Amino acid sequence: MTALIWLLLGGAVLTLGDIVFKFWVEKPQLPLYIGGLGIYLVGLMFLVQSFKTENIAVATTIFVIANIIILALVSWLYFNEKLTLLQMAGIALAILAVFLLELGK
């Protein structure tokens, strides 16, 4: 379970990096770019930490799915970006995938 917490935290940190990069795209400034890279690096450190107890393929999959789910919620709630029914179904399947990966231990 500890690896899952590392992966969810890492996915959240990676989402923060994605948000910084979205601001950088809208207003290209070097500090935003460097900050986004630094935040990504911290997120990846969480992923690497999970490798101590989790299969690398499973850990990476959960990490990416956590990032996708959190980013979809942030883009919908903060940036007012719409999610289609098909995209929501994809997110639901991603949540199911994480559950199945954890159940398969």
Description:
This protein is an all-alpha fold. It has one domain (about 1-105). Helices cover about 85% and strands about 0% of the residues. The protein contains 4 helices and no strands. It has helices at about 1-25, 30-50, 55-75, 85-105. Helix 3 (about 55-75) runs antiparallel to helix 4. The longest helix is centred in the N-terminal third of the chain and has 25 residues, at about 1-25. The relative contact order is 0.15.
Brief synopsis:
The protein is an all-alpha fold and 105 residues long. It has four helices and no strands.
Q: Tell me the domain tally.
A: 1
Poorly predicted tracts of residues = none
Largest sheet: none
Q: State the end-to-end CA separation.
A: 10 Å
Question: How many helices does DSSP assign?
Answer: 4
Query: Per the principal axes of the C-alpha atoms, what is the gross shape?
Result: flat
Number of strands: 0
Order of helices and strands: HHHH
The oligomerization state is single chain
Features:
4 helices; 105 residues; single chain; 83% helix; flat
Blueprint (SSEs and pairs):
Blueprint: H1 2-26, H2 30-50, H3 56-77, H4 85-103
